[in-house]
Amino acid sequence: MTGTGTTLVIGATGTTGSRTVARLAAARHRVRAASRRATRLPGAEAVRFDWYDPATHGAALAAAARVYLVPPVGDPDPAAVMLPFLQRARAAGVQRAVLLSSSAIPEGGPGVGAVHQALPGLFGQWAVLRPSWFMQNFTGAHAHAQSIREDGVILTATGTGRVGFVDAEDIAAAAVRALTDDRAPNTDPVLTGPEALGYDDIAAVVTEVTGRPVVHRQLTYEQLRDRLAAQLPPEFATLLAGMDRAIAQGAENRTTDAVQRLTGRPPHSFRAVAERELNHR
Known about the structure:
The chain is of the alpha/beta class and 281 residues long. The chain has eleven helices and eleven strands.
């Protein structure tokens, strides 16, 4: 499987997509980086791609053997656009599909869970990566990172719930192995970091690493839902607030060995990621 055909990376400018492109290119795989603006990335062929514009799908799929799938952001029913694309991908000769899902969404669950359920029936070689919450939520462009930078605060409805936060670099490393190893995983691993942390723990690490005080302020489910609904579609705001409530109830309080099994090395700790990505600010 390695070295043959092109790997199409959808969402190539995103948190995991950009890192997956970089790792594939560094390993000298042929990479096609798909994004809405056909953004050029080192070592990759850029192509315009929009989930909602099927006219962009043919050129993206041309001669592609493998595809990394990042669902459309914020769409409560991504299967409506993803499944027709995946059927077209299979017809175009794609042999392996690796889907980015979430630890919070089981096979057949809401949103991308329907795509997860359909994938094994469409491709003989597949994987569904189900990462926990990204460590980059606190270092990148996410609302948490923004509120940390601007106000020194993290706002959640997670209470004292803990999460096995995972480094996007570890997700990308797992994605590259799932895409290019001779044998496809044909499974749906939950990817976590090495420890489950509460948001109070995250605030403490960011404070220590940056030298700027950061606190975790707890909201109720309703307060968070209404706050999110001011910026997002109500259905999506309710979904996100519900995920926080599930964390408060212990749904994400776990770690797995999936990163180690897929990549051959242990996952990075949050402190290591904070020191790598926040120290220079």
